[in-house]
Amino acid sequence: MNKIIRNIFIIILVIIFILAFSGSYLALSMDNLAYVLAIGIDSSTDNNLQVTFQFSTPISVESSPSEKSTPILNTVTASSLSNAINLINVYLGKQINMSHCKVIIFSEELAMNGISDEIYTLINDTQVRPSSNIVVSQCSAKYYMEQTKPELENLISKYYEVFTNSSKYTGYLPDATIGHFVNSLICKTCEPFAILGSVNNGSGLSTNETQISSENDYEMKASNSSIIGENGAENIGVAAFKGDQLVGELNAIETISFLNIRDDINRFLISVPDPQNSNNYLDIYMSPTQSTHIEIDTSTQTPYVKIKCKFEGRIYSMSENSKYLTPDILNSISNSCNSYLETVFSQYLYKTSKELESDINGMGKAALKNFFTTQEYESYYWLDNYKNAFFDVEVDSSVKSGMLITET
């Protein structure tokens, strides 16, 4: 009996040692992994994909704090994204890990043909975080990645992590994640969207253009801005989808409209006519003071959408002899803001409805309350009926003078 107990005890010890040491032996250390920072996906010949993986080389301890790491790009052509990942594992001799992947870039060409297969493959990988941003590039995804050279960050991973922060205070690009994209693909109340990206050609203003008006500013999209700098890649605008296919693009002012109706912006800058000088424009920082109110009449197959927005504004630019502190003038500026925003919001909404036929704002969620059951809502075919919608936009703005300028 004692012998049996002793043998059992020895067997248990052996199992414990095997588990302990095999775990350390098989564990994947950092030396055995290659961390992906970004993935770029382009179409290729014969229905293949060209997939570019971006890795970052570590900065040595002897390097100065200002020294930047040089990203590594490897490109694989394969029949699917899964096969591309498999091939890059063979090439590197290490297993790639996508838990630090911040950005997924699709070329415009590929996005127009549909990207659901790639999206579902990525989201099915437990390493890919739902918070990874999606960019649709007007140029090839590989070229976009090659030209991404952040000027204020030593680590490109840090740039990928923070570049969407400006969405909250400029409204020129959305924070578009793969998690939201997947939800929108399976959702029956909204359509997907992504960040619009491209490469700045570095030319700035054209030779025959002497000045930039506020209209030019707001009509900018990625690839046609007036920015000149070291970082070739730029992100301005929204890529709008119908299902998994790219159907159109939004410029800067349309993106501001999109984010306001989504209640996804803290403040934004607009330029309105100066009531004291018809040849001058005033730059005004606007901030939403309450959530956008949306009411939808679905009693017919032509939805009627009524939208109410409320803002507070601060005058950001002033001319030397201007007086913008009297109630009458401030009231006229407020009316000018109301008229301007009602116009641009309406133009944006009709573009999404009549031209793009895509409810990227997810107004179907507001329409849901008009139906008693899910079956009733589904039989209304909201996403198909959105192209028949009409809109009524009401904006209420209250503009104040600049915070540091007072009249004595």
The number of helices is 14
Order of helices and strands: HEEEHEEHHEHHHHEHEEHEEEEHHHHE
Number of strands: 14
Rounded mean pLDDT is 86
Report strand %.
25-35%
Number of domains: 2
Q: Roughly how many Å is the radius of gyration? A: 27 Å
Biggest β-sheet: count, sense, barrel?
Answer: 9 strands, mixed
Q: How is this structure best summarized?
A:
The protein has helices spanning 2-26, 81-92, 108-113, 116-123, 141-147, 156-162, 167-170, 178-186, 214-218, 252-261, 327-356, 364-367, 374-380, 382-385, and strands at residues 33-43, 49-56, 71-78, 95-97, 103-107, 133-137, 193-199, 233-242, 245-250, 268-274, 277-288, 293-297, 304-315, 390-400. With 408 residues, the protein is α/β, with parallel strands linked by helices.
Structure explained in plain terms:
The chain is an alpha/beta fold and 408 residues long. The protein has two domains: 230 residues, no CATH class; 142 residues, 2-Layer Sandwich (GMP Synthetase, Chain A, domain 3). Helices cover 34% and strands 27% of the residues. The chain has 14 helices and 14 strands. Strands 1, 2, 3, 4, 5, 6, 7, 8 and 9 form a nine-stranded mixed sheet that branches. Strands 10, 11, 12, 13 and 14 form a five-stranded mixed sheet that branches. Strand 12 and strand 13 form a beta hairpin. The longest helix is centred in the last third of the chain and has 30 residues. The termini are far apart. About 4% of the residues have low confidence.
